[in-house]
Amino acid sequence: MDKILIVDDEPDVEVLMKQRFRRQIREKQFSLYFAHNGIEALNVLGTEKDIRLLISDINMPEMDGLTLLKNIGEKFPEVIPIIVSAYGDMNNIRQAMNLGAFDFVTKPINFDDLTVTIQKTMKHIQNLIESEKTKTKLDGILHELNVASEIQQSILPRDFINDNSLQVFAKMTAAKSVGGDFYDFFWIDDERKKLSIVIADVSGKGVPAALFMTVSRTLIRANALNDLSPGQTFTKVNIALEKDNTNMMFVTAFYGILDTESGVLTYCNAGHNPPHIIRADSIETMKIQHGMALGVIAEQTYKEDTITIQPNDLLFLYTDGVTEAETGDGRFFGDETLVTSLNANRGLAASELVNTIGSEIVNFAAGWPQSDDITMLALRYLGKKTN
């Protein structure tokens, strides 16, 4: 129920207002509170919560209406004032409006006019309340997205590899709505001869996706470091993710282990985009056996395969945010453009290639906000490591 504070030093105003608005009071449309001057009004506002509408005379003893408006603006900015003033007193009315009065009525009061003014002001107040609620929700969403972004960024490795055997570089550009892309690379042996590489895309947005991403990345790492092959790793990770997956989330992923002595890549794919290999004289899209995304069906078994990466070949992994980068008129970057770009920049180092394609996507989108993360990982194999 709305609360209205009426401030007037005339003794019959309280009786008159209660009489005129008895139906609204009886139907609990609003309740009335009364004060005889500005000081009393401030005391009422300080003790009675949720008063959002004030109707005040200007000429009152102890504290007049204009001084009251100044105090309300400083102490109770959520209160919306209506001023009552003598007809023709435009100077005071103008000052009152400058001090924050929403509207005014003139004396002698026309109660039909006052009723319309109250209704209009109440509607304005309701709009303000809804705006405040919306802002609170948006602030909460923004906080959630910031948390999700921090989670997402915190798990991405930054210690990229650049030696006489390997170049490894990756980059994740977060979308306007934080998703669940991640990449990873790590040695699985003490001799640092076998390198694991992972790229993945979690369904959903915000904190849930970020948390599911963290769990997925942890499970993949833990199983990989337990001497499991890519297929075995995905089979176990899938079982763990599917269990108690009440939100029906899933993650597409590609996981490979590169033997840096031989160049043999043992890999497994779970519903993810097939990587490209830039060879000396061609670009090859890997022919992979598509397993289902992780976390969907527990009984899924994941098969693995091998391919040989030749010295100076570059392996390019990416999420669908790359090819689905969009312009304002609905055009997509697309697979063909990606392959053309890879071919044109085939001689670049891993880091330069990723950054160049990233710049081309930015130029293509021309400032249009993207709805999906854009993640790339490039690995150039230079041959067996020499001391």
Shape: elongated
Average predicted local confidence, pLDDT: 89
**How would you sum up the major sheet?**
6 strands, antiparallel
Q: Measured on Cα atoms, how large is the radius of gyration? A: 34 Å
Which second-level CATH architecture of the largest domain applies?
Answer: 4-Layer Sandwich
Strand order across the largest sheet:
6-7-16-15-12-13
- Looking at the structure, the CATH topology of the largest domain is Phosphatase 2c, domain 1
EC number: 3.1.3.3
Domain Response regulatory: 3-122
GO molecular function: phosphatase activity
Protein name: Phosphoserine phosphatase RsbU
Describe what you observe in this structure.
- This is Phosphoserine phosphatase RsbU.
- The modification 4-aspartylphosphate is found at residue 57.
- By secondary structure, the chain is α+β, with helices and mostly antiparallel strands.
- The protein has two domains: 2-134, Rossmann fold; 155-381, Phosphatase 2c, domain 1, CATH 3.60.40.
- Helices cover 39% and strands 25% of the residues.
- It has helices spanning 13-20, 22-26, 38-47, 65-75, 90-98, 111-154, 206-224, 230-242, 320-323, 334-344, 350-365, and strands at residues 2-7, 30-35, 53-57, 80-86, 103-107, 161-162, 166-173, 180-187, 194-202, 251-259, 264-270, 276-278, 283-285, 304-308, 314-318, 374-381.
- The chain has a six-stranded antiparallel β-sheet with strand order 6-7-16-15-12-13. Strands 2-1-3-4-5 form a five-stranded parallel β-sheet, with helices on both faces. Strands 8-9-10-11-14 form a five-stranded antiparallel β-sheet, with helices on one face.
- Strand 4, helix 5 (90-98) and strand 5 form a beta-alpha-beta unit.
- Helix 3 packs parallel to helix 4 (65-75), helix 6 packs parallel to helix 7 (206-224) and helix 7 (206-224) packs across helix 8 (230-242).
- The mean pLDDT is 89.
